[in-house]
Write a structure and sequence with these properties.
Layout lengths: L2 H10 L1 H14 L1 H11 L10 H12 L6 H7 L1 H4 L3 H10 L2 H21 L12 E9 L8 H4 L9 E7 L4 E8 L10 H5 L6 E5 L6 H9 L3 E5 L7 E2 L4 E5 L3 E11 L5 E11 L9 E6 L7 H11 L1 H12 L10 H13 L2 H8 L5
Parallel strand pairs: 1-4, 4-5
Antiparallel strand pairs: 1-2, 2-3, 5-10, 6-8, 7-8, 8-9, 9-10
Helix pairs in contact: 1-2, 2-3, 4-14, 8-14, 13-15
């Protein structure tokens, strides 16, 4: 039906054709505009379609155009609105909409991946592994010269991002417009999404009493690096559990009491590293509520695998223009970052392809 040229593409590069077709199915203009009408809470469409704004921002994120202004000038007749209207739309884009766009793409692609049998082997059988990390878009001094000295200038925002290695997708994001806000202020929203048999892997910033005990209460699991400020009681001495490729492992039982006074017993692992971390640490302490049948070596390996997510954000900026320096509006900057997450499954997923078993 589509001719010999298309058939040649299918024969020579079937994966590229499938990815293109999937993207157009999920993120085509008509579907995006319909999705936006259902999703937006305050904004609404007059003359400027959401799909037009999405297309212009995509050109900037993919480095096709250096700025939103350049993308607009390249196709002013197709947009159907003034450049001022475009900037006003970006200025008012709700963070809720940006986050829901990432979730919408994840749901649609997850169904396609499952249908095609494309899920990777689980990191740990019987658990839905979720790697969570925070990201702060570059501060004001990295942005427009006019914005650097502006009184009361706003940082462009931060977010907490959830990646699921079995699907190779960023499945959730929790953005915040206030660049000065503590990352931990977003944890309440993350905790509401925890389900039974979820396994959350995170760095020490997520090691709070509330995050650990609430995850445990909800039937979820975690592998999280210990923060020095966490209050706990040691219930047993450290016991050696052998060696891994990165160092010697030992564990003990500890108790963390939640805000209601209920005790939660966890395992505390110590890894004496063969080589110091980039911060100079020679020992790592990891907390987990995984059952004893999951060995300490396996827990240590799970945490080691999550280190690559920190590099993923650097790759987003390298492969895509995920932090758009010419946008001073926090909502618009976060929208650009979320568009990079929408476009990122292949690049980010590749970082983890060698770590699953």
């Amino acid at each position: 039906m589509l001719g010999a040229v298309f058939e040649r593409f299918v024969e020579k590069s079937p994966v590229s054709v499938m990815v293109r077709a999937s993207l157009e199915r999920v993120l085509g203009a008509d579907r995006l505009d319909l999705w936006y009408e259902r999703t937006a809470q305050k904004q609404y469409t007059r003359d400027l379609l959401f799909s037009s704004v999405y297309d212009m921002m995509n050109q900037v994120v993919f480095c096709v155009q250096p700025s939103v202004r350049a993308a607009y000038r390249d196709q002013p007749d197709d947009v159907g609105a003034s450049l001022v209207s475009v900037y006003n739309k970006l200025k008012g884009l709700e963070t809720h909409t940006s986050a829901e766009l990432v979730r919408y793409r994840a749901r649609e692609f997850a169904a396609l991946i499952e249908h095609m049998g494309g899920e990777r082997a689980p990191w740990l059988k019987g658990y839905r592994v979720k790697i969570v990390d925070g990201n702060c878009i570059e501060a004001s001094e990295h942005r427009l010269k006019e914005l650097r000295e502006a009184t009361g200038r706003a940082l462009p925002g931060k977010s907490v991002v959830v990646y699921e290695p079995a699907q190779g997708l960023v499945t959730d994001v929790f953005p915040c417009e206030d660049g000065h806000a503590q990352e931990r202020s977003l944890f309440g929203s993350v905790l509401k999404t925890i389900k039974r048999s979820d396994l959350w892997i995170a760095d020490r910033n997520f090691c709070t009493r509330a995050f650990l005990t609430e995850t445990d209460r909800r039937g979820g699991f975690f592998v999280i690096r210990e923060h020095r400020g966490l209050p706990f009681e040691m219930l047993s001495p450290m016991r050696s559990c052998g060696r891994t490729s990165t160092g010697q492992v030992a564990q003990q039982r500890v108790c963390v009491v939640d805000e209601h006074g209920h005790p939660h017993v966890f395992r505390r692992l110590r890894i004496k590293l063969n080589q110091a971390t980039r911060d100079g640490d020679t020992e790592l302490y990891i907390l987990t509520n995984l059952p004893g049948r999951v060995s300490t070596k396996r827990v240590a390996q799970l945490y080691q695998n999550r280190w690559k997510l920190e590099t993923a954000f650097q790759h987003l900026e390298a492969y895509f223009h995920s932090e758009i320096n010419t946008l001073g509006y926090p909502k618009a900057a976060l929208f650009g970052f979320c568009l990079a997450l929408v476009a990122s499954p292949v690049k980010v997923g590749r970082l983890f392809s060698s770590t699953h078993e």
